[in-house]
């Protein structure tokens, strides 16, 4: 049976030491999150994840969801677990107090979500999508819509979805055919079919609020003619109670590779009543509020499956006896040594361990920037934080999911043939992790977004602000001798990233294929550089503790060893990414269609 243990010590190190969250104690949200409160929340979140959600992970995978007579039922135990989640107030953790939320920092929210996703990714998608719907309505809904729907979303009594693509669309949403016909009362009749709708129909909540992209009759073709609509599963009576069933139904459940515990639906809209969210023909702008939040959540899923797979692979490597150490027996009293003694097994495990800790730091740091972009009273800090959120969203989404999946595969490899057997759980981690590279914009789309939009935004202000933040750290790190290996790796990665950025500026305009050919390499170059930066920040914090009177010295010593592994074995990859980018598009575009 697979296991999961929430890495509480890692979370506390990030919040209390590496990022010193207490320095923001005077800001909104942070003032309600003193260290003792944060620690108590983390403890309770760990119990929920380990004791309630993780035991349901394999059950959800094996049983899946079922559709009978238009009704979808979730796997055994999911309804009770969701009730426990709601009764504990967890959906309200970071939501606006004006609508019943607790108003705590998003940096704490992503940690909670990582625990939930590590324990049971499919289950975590139900409340995760609801929070995205909450954010879209919070920023773009009318005051009446907020008053009517947000308290129920915040409490978790109702859930939410996002309805984007259709069978013929893929990522090109400008091709969508779902139509919206205006009605005399200000509502719209929505007709069309949406696919791949996670949590689209289920038995966990009394109502589901669908956010649906559609085109109003007569609107321009393409992206510029898309609007966003709120379509409840059940319409509401005047007193706010549930009324008649709306014209939306589940036509099928997708037969998927993984995340079987989540109901991924084909939803049919047959003149369903919908309400415009935001302005006509501005639906993509409103939906992007939800999508960008979802992309960070998907990056989190890549990390979560990497963490869960790693934990199980480590336990197996310590117990499984096979072969002898190349330098002589390490367990002479046993017929063979644990496979943990073998360098190649350690390579696979340390690839995951070093990534998990560095990626977790990047995720929390990025979420912290999101908090500061709203809460800080310093305009320069707000601008920097907002720029980092925009710049790093595609990096977090794609880099963490690509590497997270690769780590799940390597964790499966540690098990050998036993990793291919379903009962051991590693196959599920691999299958579940695979979707994160695809949905909310496939990773190649994220790379194009980074190179084509995010770099050029505001004249490149965000990427140069990132460079300056790294340079400021390097200037400080240069005074600390023990940080030299981290500073050297960060400096080299930063130079490679800047060189790649300048190469695009010089070569992409004259031949856009150059940007397309190098975009994925650039995204991962950026990802490795960003994680190297995080490891440098963590190393500095660990060294400060070791130079003092830290009680838990072994934790900080191991932290430094893990960081050195990353900067010595992984960070040099940036040079390879740079060389690939400089080759340009010619080798890719030299082939005619008939040569494939």
Overall description:
Helix 8 (283-319) runs antiparallel to helix 9, helix 8 crosses helix 10 (379-414) and helix 10 (379-414) packs across helix 15. The chain is globular, with a radius of gyration of 24 Å. The two termini are 44 Å apart. The chain has 18 helices and 11 strands. Helices cover 55% and strands 12% of the residues. It has a 5-stranded mixed barrel with strand order 4-5-11-7-6. Strand 8 (234-236) and strand 9 form a beta hairpin. The chain has helices at residues 8-18, 35-53, 57-63, 78-87, 106-119, 121-140, 143-155, 283-319, 343-375, 379-414, 426-434, 443-454, 461-477, 484-507, 512-546, 553-570, 573-583, 586-589; strands at residues 66-68, 71-73, 158-163, 179-182, 188-198, 207-216, 227-232, 234-236, 242-245, 248-253, 264-277. By secondary structure, it is an alpha+beta fold.
Q: Report strand %.
A: 5-15%
Total strands:
11
> Compute the gyration radius: what is it?
24 Å
- Mean pLDDT across the residues is 95
Q: What's the topology here?
A:
Layout: H1 8-18, H2 35-53, H3 57-63, E1 66-68, E2 71-73, H4 78-87, H5 106-119, H6 121-140, H7 143-155, E3 158-163, E4 179-182, E5 188-198, E6 207-216, E7 227-232, E8 234-236, E9 242-245, E10 248-253, E11 264-277, H8 283-319, H9 343-375, H10 379-414, H11 426-434, H12 443-454, H13 461-477, H14 484-507, H15 512-546, H16 553-570, H17 573-583, H18 586-589
Parallel strand pairs: 3-6, 4-6
Antiparallel strand pairs: 1-2, 4-5, 5-11, 6-7, 7-11, 8-9, 10-11
Helix pairs in contact: 1-2, 2-5, 5-6, 5-8, 5-9, 6-7, 6-8, 8-9, 8-10, 8-11, 9-10, 9-15, 9-16, 10-11, 10-12, 10-13, 10-15, 12-15, 13-14, 14-15, 14-16, 14-17, 15-16, 15-17
């Amino acid at each position: 049976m697979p296991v999961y243990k929430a890495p509480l010590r890692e979370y506390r190190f990030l919040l209390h030491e590496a990022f010193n969250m207490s320095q923001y104690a005077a800001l909104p949200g942070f003032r309600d999150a003193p260290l003792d409160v944060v620690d108590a929340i983390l403890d309770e979140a760990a119990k929920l994840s380990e004791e309630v959600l993780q035991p349901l992970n394999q059950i959800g995978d094996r049983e899946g969801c079922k559709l009978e007579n238009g009704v979808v039922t979730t796997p055994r135990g999911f309804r009770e677990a969701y009730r426990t989640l709601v009764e504990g107030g967890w959906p309200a953790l970071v939501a606006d107090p004006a609508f019943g939320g607790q108003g705590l920092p998003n940096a704490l929210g992503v940690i909670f979500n990582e625990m939930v996703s590590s324990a049971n990714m499919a289950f975590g998608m139900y409340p995760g999508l609801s929070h995205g719907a909450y954010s879209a309505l919070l920023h773009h809904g009318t005051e009446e819509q907020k008053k009517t729907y947000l308290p129920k979303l915040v409490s978790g009594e109702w859930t939410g979805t996002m309805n984007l693509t259709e069978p013929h669309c893929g990522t090109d949403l400008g091709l969508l055919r779902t139509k919206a016909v205006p009605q005399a009362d200000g509502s719209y009749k929505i007709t069309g079919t949406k696919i791949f709708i996670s949590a689209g129909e289920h038995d966990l909540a009394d109502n589901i609020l669908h956010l649906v992209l559609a085109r109003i009759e007569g609107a321009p073709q393409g992206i510029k003619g898309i609007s966003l609509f709120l379509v409840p599963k059940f319409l509401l009576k005047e007193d706010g109670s549930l009324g008649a069933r709306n014209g939306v139904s589940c036509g099928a459940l997708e037969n998927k590779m993984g995340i079987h515990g989540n109901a991924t639906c084909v939803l049919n809209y047959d003149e369903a009543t919908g309400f415009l969210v935001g302005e006509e023909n501005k639906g993509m702008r409103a939906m992007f509020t939800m999508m960008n939040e979802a992309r960070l959540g998907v990056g989190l899923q890549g990390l979560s499956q990497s963490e869960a797979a790693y934990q199980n692979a480590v336990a197996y490597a310590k117990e499984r006896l096979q072969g002898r150490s190349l330098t002589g027996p390490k367990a002479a009293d046993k017929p063979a040594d644990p496979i943990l003694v073998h360098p190649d097994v350690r390579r696979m495990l340390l690839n995951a361990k070093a990534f998990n800790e560095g990626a977790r730091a990047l995720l929390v740091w990025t979420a912290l920037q999101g908090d500061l972009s709203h809460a800080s009273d310093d305009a320069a800090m707000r601008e920097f934080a907002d720029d980092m959120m925009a710049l790093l969203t595609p990096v977090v989404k794609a880099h963490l999911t690509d590497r997270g999946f690769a780590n799940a595969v390597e964790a499966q490899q540690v098990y050998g043939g036993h990793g291919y057997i379903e009962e051991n759980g590693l196959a599920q981690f691999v299958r579940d992790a695979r979707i994160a590279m695809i949905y909310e914009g496939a990773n190649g789309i994220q790379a194009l977004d980074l190179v084509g939009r995010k770099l050029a935004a505001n004249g490149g202000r965000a990427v140069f602000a990132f460079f300056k933040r790294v340079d400021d750290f390097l200037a400080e790190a240069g005074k600390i001798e023990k940080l030299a290996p981290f500073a050297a790796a960060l400096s080299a990665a930063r130079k490679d990233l800047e060189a790649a950025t300048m190469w695009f500026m010089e070569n992409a305009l004259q031949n856009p294929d150059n940007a397309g050919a190098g975009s994925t390499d650039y995204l991962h170059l950026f990802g490795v550089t960003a994680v190297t930066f995080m490891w440098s920040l963590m190393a500095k914090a660990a060294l400060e503790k070791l130079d003092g009177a830290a009680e838990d010295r072994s934790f900080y010593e191991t932290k430094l060893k893990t960081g050195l592994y990353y900067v010595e074995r992984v960070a040099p990859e940036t040079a390879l990414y740079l060389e690939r980018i400089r080759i340009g598009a010619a080798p890719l575009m030299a082939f005619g269609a008939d040569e494939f």
